[in-house]
Each structure stands twice: as C-alpha cells, then as structure tokens.
From TrEMBL:
The lineage of its organism: Bacteria, Bacillati, Actinomycetota, Actinomycetes, Kitasatosporales. Transmembrane segments: none annotated. This is Alpha/beta hydrolase. SUPFAM superfamilies: alpha/beta-Hydrolases. Residues 5-232 form the AB hydrolase-1 domain. The keyword Chloroplast does not apply. InterPro entries: AB_hydrolase_1, AB_hydrolase_fold. It comes from the Bacteria. GO terms for molecular function: hydrolase activity. Keywords: Hydrolase.
Amino acid sequence: MSTKVVFVHGYPDTHRLWDPLREHLRGYDTVALDLPGYGGSMPDGLTGTRWELAEWLTGELRRFRRPVHVVAHDVGGMVLHSVLKNNPELLRSWALTSTCDPDWSWHHNARVWQTTTLGEAARDEYLGYPREWQIIGLGEAGVPEYHAPVTAEHYDATMFNAGLAFYRSSVYIGDWWPEENAELPPGLVLWGNHDRYQAPQHGVKLAARTGARFVALDSDHWWPLEQPKAGAEELRRHWAAVERG
C-alpha cells in the first residue's frame, strides 16, 4: 500500500500510544503526530481548544499533498470529525474511536475538567503526586500497566492545560456530528467493547450514520495498547478494501 497512514492520539497521550500497533504494521508508510502541547511545548498563540486542534490537524493533513489514511483515538478521533465534516477530500479513508454524538454526555472526569477551579484543582493535585502515585492513578483510569509509566513521563502541566482547554471548548461537540447522507471517504469505527468513557453503542451509531464498518475489540478504552495485533489486522483489512476500490 503506497498511501501514507497518519495516526492521531488522544488525551492524555502522545504519539507513543501507537508504538505497539505500529509494530504490527511494519512495511506500511506511517507517521504518528503529536497534538500541540501534548508531549512538548504549546506553539505560540494556541491553547488547545477543539477549534485550534481541528485547524492544526487540517493543516498537517494538507502537508501530505494527497489524501491519506487517518487513524485517530479519543480526542484525536473527535477532532477528526471536524475534518470529516469540513475537509473530507483530505482523507483516503478514516478509522477512529470516540464520536461527537450529540446525544452523548461527557464522563465524570471530563465534567470536572470542564469546570472552572475544579479542573485546576485536579491538575494541581495530580501534578503534586510523586511519579509512582501518578502511574497508579493512570492505571486506575484504565491505562494499561505496562504503558502507564510512559504516559506519566509526558503528562505534564502543558498537556494538562491543553486538556482543560479542549474539554472546556467541548461541553457540546455535536456540531461535528456527520451530516445525514453526507458523502464521506470509507470509514472504520474501532471500539473497545468495555470502554469506560464512551460506550460502544455510540460507535455503532456513528457507523450506521456514515456507512462505516464497526468493529468491537476485547478491550477497555485504550485498544491500541490492549489489542494492537487485532487492531492492526482490522486496519489492514480496511485499507486493503479501500485500495481495491
């Protein structure tokens, strides 16, 4: 397959989320992006709102000069909805987890982050913990044990503040829900069947609305870490069907 594959992570992750999955996709031309402020400095003039992330991702995809396959998870998946709605010509195909279903309500953690003062208190409490406590907390939130130290290493104040900006700009995100009968590139909705943050039925609903194939993997929220081999197999099947036309 000659088409480039672009991976977009979520919160609180970096491009490293995709490392286990990409190990099973050797031979493919892949690149994993870091969202602004995630695992590095925040570019001047940005804070991390969903509109900024959408503009940023659109710009990154335009750099490739031809449509690409995009795989996105969590916040990255929601931001990809904006590209699907406003710039679908940039995509050869798409695969994602997490939807902008207007009937969905944010989970508890997100509602805390969306609340002024509470979000800052949660940030300061987390950042004040010793690293080993941070790792334990991430594990309790569902990050697989083997990857929690990697997440903790890069989950700093810059990323936390970027997350606050995203979630506060996303109290309602249903305006990115795909239009009914919209002409979209081929899609795949990949979901953990035990996802604690957004139930699989929202993925089923997105697949039905877009004509995408829905696949449930035996995992919690972080399927790229929990089921990388199975996820890679589904992606290869998806891309092969797209390339065959």
